[in-house]
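Researcher: Here's a chain I'd like modeled. Treat it as a single chain, no partners, no ligands.
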Amino acid sequence: MRRLALLVLGLVSLPAMALTNIELYRTEVLLDSSAENADAQARIEGMKEVIVRASGDTSAASNQVVTKALKQNSQYLTQISYGQIDGEQTIKMAFSEPHIRSLLSQAQLPVWPSDRANVLVWLVEEQAERNIIWEHSDSELLATMKSEAEKRGLPITVPVGDFDDVTGVNVSDLWGGFVRPVGQASQRYPVDAVLVVKAQGNTLRWTLYDQNPSSIGVTRQAPVSGTNTGGDAASKLINQISDYYAKHNAVVASSESSEAVKVRFTELTDAVGFFKLENNLKKLSSVASIDIVKIQSNEVTFNVHLLSSQAEFEQEVQRKNPVTQMASIVEQPEVVEVAPIVTPQGEGSVQDPATTPAVEETPAEVAPTLPAIKPEPAETILVFKWQGKPYVAPVVEEQPSSEDEVSAVEDTAEPETSAAAS
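Model: Modeled as a single isolated chain. Structure tokens:
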């Protein structure tokens, strides 16, 4: 009992995780007034930032489904206003969380939850001498790291540089990689990890301790480290740390979309027409993805996941395909008949009703009741008649053989020779 009590006290004394909730779906973008359609371009850039931040994937904006959705960004916007940063006009945007998450699901992209690990950053810059960069320090490198971290949705904390910080850790501890002092100095901050960055010119060497500060130097958990060089070294560093946490915490949601419709195309007489239709559907801006449900005779049925309304999809199908829309049909689910349960009278015996004495039924002999089967709802299927021209194989003309070519030349040459002789 005493051991159990000590264990409980030990667990209670452990510091709680300091996961920080990040605002993923709001952004502010500089408005380039000199560009054509500046507002439209800014909305696209803002939506790209939100998608990268919410997915944790820097290449998410180039996804084929996302690229289509970017052109319809107004469907994802919930609020828009204008502001200023350092005298330059900006556009502030808020996007719908359910719509963005649905888009990521349709594009089979991961979702990085908004509750994210908070990283304490100890930054040391070596110029004339080595200095620790505090929260209030005038450092271009720190400003870049903050800006990039905000874009990626990576919460970072920078030590304030008060008396406790200055006396709690030395530059030599950070630069030399002395783990125990770094862990002890970091415990006053409610963070989940500690990042030590050493800057020499355009070279950044960093070490990430992905653990609670109280366990740094105590446990044998190995840190993650790396080196970046060049003018964009700070951006690379933040991207690597963000990718690390996104990889460990992001999940890919189900590919099923809440906005889906079944579509049937008839009169597809050849395979060429089918593949042409399938490719055309995938290219439609209103379509996220398609699944083939059934192919029967000259008909094919698709389950189409939509990025827009059903009405817009119907219009786009007719505008970009040789089809005619027919009346929709309602398809009833198949009814499964349940065979009655027959109770055998006796193994291997046959009873004759004429000779078998009647047996009075008792109230206890009640036929078992089968559970009710809930019928599936009927489905409405859009129907289009394919009117594309049937595929005709090109006719290949036979080339004359070499002997035919020689004889043809001789035949054309004889009249000239005889004329010359005459």
